[in-house]
Amino acid sequence: MIKNNNLPLKKIKIIAVTKNQNINVIKKAISIGIKEFGENYIQESIVKIQALKNYKNIIWHFIGKIQSKKTKIIAQNFHWCQTIDREKIAILLNKYRPKNLPPINVLIQINISEEKNKNGVYIKDYKKLAESIYLMPHLNLRGIMAMPAINKNSIDNSIQYKQIKTIFEKLKKRYISVDTLSLGTSFDIKKSLIATSNMIRIGRDIFDK
Ligand SMILES: *Cc1c(COP(=O)(O)O)cnc(C)c1O
Question: Which residues carry this modification: N6-(pyridoxal phosphate)lysine (predicted)?
């Protein structure tokens, strides 16, 4: 819970990003009460998820780039997928989600900086993708994820935070299931919270000395 003059009192989820961290590090994190973990690489994450199967309360978020051939493994093993950026991936996740599991929670990754080499759907295309995801029975549309451009030298990225906030508000109004804005890493926590983020993905600030 965070409270200051700019920020309303609200719940903020922290996802511990454990890419490149080993199982013992994750166990240690679990032992101090961390329950939600973000992973980027399928091979690496499956080993960890299997090894930690007995910890029933752990929630796994896939936050890496998605290849179509990995959608089945994601659908079978993760509680959340934060990086959907095209309909094809949504269709496959919906198809492969085991029917005995609840729908997988999904976020649409938006390429808010509109850089060619970045993942995410362009702003002009997110509505169509949201509509199609919303209609898929084994996906639960929870909101959006984004990584604004790093604020280097003279580049001002504050407009991107404003845009993402606006997109989130629009989506929330339209879809009752939408409640999550996954924005912010170790680099930009404050800016993200001001942009009404309620899910922060932290790697370095938790695990690096
Ligand atoms: C690695 C990663 C993070 C965490 O970044 P840190 O700088 O280590 O806090 C968050 N989100 C995504 C998508 C990542 O790949």
Answer: 19
Contact in structure between 191 and 158 (CB atoms under 8 Å) = yes
1 in a domain, yes or no? no
Tokens of 70: 């990995």
| Residues 184 and 17 sit within 8 Å (Cβ to Cβ) | no
Residue whose CA is closest, atom 10 of ligand 1?
201
Q: How many domains does the chain have?
A: 1
Question: Range of 59's domain?
Answer: 11-207
Do residues 143 and 178 touch, judged by C-beta distance below 8 A?
yes
> Is the pTM for the entire model greater than 0.90?
yes
Distance 123 CA to ligand 1 centre (A): 22
Which atom of ligand 1 approaches the CA of 201 most closely?
A: 10
Distance 61 CA to ligand 1 centre (A): 12
Identify the residue whose C-alpha is closest to ligand 1 atom 11: 201
In a domain, 2, yes or no: no
Ligand 1 atom closest to 208 (CA)? 8
Which atom of ligand 1 is nearest to 186's Cα? 9
Query: In this structure, is residue 4 part of a structural domain?
Result: no
pLDDT tens sequence across 137-187:
999 999 999 999 887 766 788 999 999 999 999 999 999 999 999 999 999
CATH code assigned at 173: 3.20.20.10
Establish if 168 belongs to a structural domain.
yes
Residues 186-206: pLDDT tens digits?
999 999 999 999 999 999 999
27-41 pLDDT, tens digit per residue, is 999 999 999 999 999
> Tokens 């912010």 label which residue?
184
